[in-house]
Amino acid sequence: LNTDLTVNSKCPGGTHVNGYGTMSVNCTNNNGSITPRIIKKDGIVSTINPTSVSGTVYTFDNLSPANYIVEYTIQSACTNKYYDTFDVKPYIYPALVESAVYQCNNNSFTVNAVVTGGIVPLVYEIIGSLPATPSIVAPAQTSPIFTINNGASYSQINLRAVDVCGNGTVNNA
Questions:
Q1: In Å, what is the CA distance from 9 to each residue of 117, 138, 159?
Q2: What pLDDT sits at residue 78?
Q3: Maximum distance among all alpha carbons in the chain?
Q4: 158 and 101 in contact (C-beta within 8 Å)?
Q5: What angle do CA 123, 127, 133 make, to 5 degrees?
Q6: Residue 117 and residue 92 in contact, taking contact as beta carbons nearer than 8 Å
Q7: pLDDT tens digit sequence for 11-54
Q8: In angstroms, rounded to a whole number, what is the distance separating the alpha carbons of residues 144 and 164?
Q9: Which residues contact 151 (CB under 8 A, 6 or more apart)?
Q10: Which alpha helices (H) appear in the chain, and where do they start and end?
Q11: Sign of CA dihedral 3, 1, 58, 13
Q12: Left (φ > 0), alpha (ψ -120 to 50) or beta: where does 30 sit?
């Protein structure tokens, strides 16, 4: 039995305030067909069948944050069962932490935005600075690193990061 299990986190919403996830597993073997199903959620017996099947890929949608056990039943001359454990983590709002500015003697510098939480992809932007001129306000970009080489010196850089859910965080470096 070969399995390739992937869990993708999803944004919080009205029915899933702590977020939710989708688990997909690609199951292959050389001895009969495979039937996966979730048999436990947080240690409690449960039966969750795949919401969709495409070839050898089985998908389980709308899984709330929890620890799950999936059972694989192989239909062959004798019935074999195999197990995997996976977690759907609760959504954590993004937070800009430990962002840093590295300034050189010639006043060129690099800003590195560091985000914990949220769901990727994130976008990053510089929304202000002290002093405010010359302006280094930058539009949203996918890289957390900004390189500025305008010869000016800044005492503070105001950063914002927004995750795929539209939730943002601001902080100063």
A1: 11, 29, 25
A2: 65
A3: 76
A4: no
A5: 140
A6: yes
A7: 998 888 999 999 999 998 877 788 899 999 999 999 999 999 99
A8: 15
A9: 106, 107, 108
A10: none
A11: negative
A12: alpha
- What are 155's two structure tokens? 């005492």
Locate 41 and state its tokens: 């959620």
Strands 52-54 and 109-112: unpaired
Q: What is the pLDDT of residues 119-133, one digit of tens each?
A: 999 999 999 999 999
**Token duo for residue 119:** 């769901």
CB-based burial label for 118 (10 Å; 0-12, 13-18, 19+): buried
pTM for the model stands at: 0.80
In angstroms, the Cα distances linking 11 to 19, 83, 119, 143 are: 5, 28, 7, 21
Check: CB of residue 171 under 8 Å from CB of residue 128.
no
Token representation of residue 37: 């199903």
Measured distance CA(92)–CA(90) in Å, rounded: 6
